[in-house]
Amino acid sequence: KKEKRQKAVAKKKEKAKATSKATKPRAKKGTKKAARAKVTMKKAPAKRSGTKPARKTTATKPAKKAVAKSAAAEAVDEKATGVAGCEVVGEYNAKLHYINLEENSDKYFVIQVLAGPGQATYLYTRWGRSGTDGQQELTAMGRDDAIAGFKTKFKEKTGNEFGSDAPHQEGKYQSIITGLPALAPGVWEYNLAAPMDGMPAGWHPYHPSAIPIVEEVFVEWKNNPGAGLDVRCVQSGHYSYRVSFDKMQQTNLQTNKTRPIRRLSEQPTR
Length: 270
Prior knowledge:
Helix content: 25-40%
Order of helices and strands: HHEEEEHEEEHEEEE
Strand content: 25-35%
Structural class: alpha+beta
Radius of gyration: 40 Å
Largest sheet: 6 strands, antiparallel
Number of helices: 4
Shape: elongated
Distance between the termini: 141 Å
């Protein structure tokens, strides 16, 4: 009888162990699933925040295009005639200079591709001695031909491909930076060391027709530091002058008379 009781107790214990083992893994599996569910719920908001930067970048693009368009519209050569309603096509706008002080030579060459009303396209050029309006030519042609003509003319004058970083070639024109904001209008004066032609010694204003000539080459010098534009030879009326902006003096090339000059930002009170 004792043996039967002992066997019965042992069977009960084995059944109890078996049931406890069967229930424990189910509880663990359930907790893992619950934990996974909580993790996925936390990650979901992070995906929504990742879309915000894309909206910021797309919002700034239209503003850049508008600025580029207005800058091109203002770049048409101010001396050009017959170009009402035209705009410069892309980057095809260049002002070139050739300066040889030994020969008292100072020349410019302007090249532009212009788009007119409708589908009209032009290759525009203007050239002459610095200080003069020079000559100009406006030729209607297809857009691709105008751009090709621009590049050909640029290489012919400079010896370099348009858009390259090649250095200036001696004996050739060099391209200068254009389109930068101009300085505040200046008033130019020259100084007489002694009375002359009924004028007293001291500072005297330039003739009104000479002021924009000197102002133009002065702004080019300020916009292109290191480009060798500090000394210029300009035509003013019947006279040619060599103007040095480093020394602030001018020399009449006919009389070889040198005088101090100065630039005032406002009209002086006399």
